[in-house]
Amino acid sequence: MDPNLIADTREKMRKALEVLHSDIATIRTGKATPSLVENIQVSVYNGASKLKVMEVATVGVQDAHSLVLTPFDASITEEIRKGIMDSGAGLNPSSDGQVIRINIPPLSSERRQELIHLMRQKLENGHVMIRQIRHEALNDLKKGDLPEDENSRLEKEIQRATDEFIGQIDALGKRKEEELLQI
To answer: pTM of this prediction?
Structure first.
């Protein structure tokens, strides 16, 4: 058995939480935030490359309801704009040839509920990831020939870590839901 089982388990849980955090950030609220577009894949240079928006442009927040993208290469401005439109993110970018502006429309209450439902699905996936990591750690623990009291102590430590990360996921969900419900 690995002597760093608890530390490795906590690290895996931390990474799972980071992945979930990034995933949740892509759910748009009524506010403009760069995370809405920076990971959208766009086809540039006549389809020669498929890159993320953050790799081809700087993304800035102009005000609470608009983003401004400044492409590193002005010749691909239109390709970036089209890629964002075709991404399915529900955004309608406009371009003046140099910069791309995206107005973030306010969410309808029906759309807010859909996004809350989507967020809850993502949170449940996060719970599943954490529980899977716990399950793997407990299996690794059973493979080791440890005294019963040491085994019990490590099981409790793994469960404490699990509870801590599940709590962080729940807090993340609560904050995001409050954001989604703000008008």
So the answer is: 0.69
pLDDT tens for 94-130 read 888 888 998 887 778 888 888 899 999 999 999 999 9
- Measure the CA angle with vertex 66, ends 59 and 85; round to 5°: 75
- Spell out the residues 6+ positions from residue 34 whose beta carbon is closer than 8 angstroms to its own: 54, 59, 60, 61, 67
72 and 57 Cβ atoms separated by less than 8 Å:
yes
Angle at 49 between CA 44 and CA 55, to 5 degrees: 75
Q: Enter the tokens of residue 95.
A: 């371009």
Q: 30 with 183: CB under 8 angstroms?
A: yes
Return the CATH number of the domain spanning residue range 5-25+108-181: 1.10.132.20
Portions of the chain given CATH number 1.10.132.20: 5-25+108-181
Give yes or no for residue 155 having a pLDDT over 90: yes
Q: Where in the chain is the domain with CATH 3.30.1360.40?
A: 34-103
Residue whose tokens read 């399950």: 135
Q: Are 12 and 21 in contact (CB under 8 A)?
A: no
- Band of pLDDT at residue 2, cut at 50, 70 and 90: low
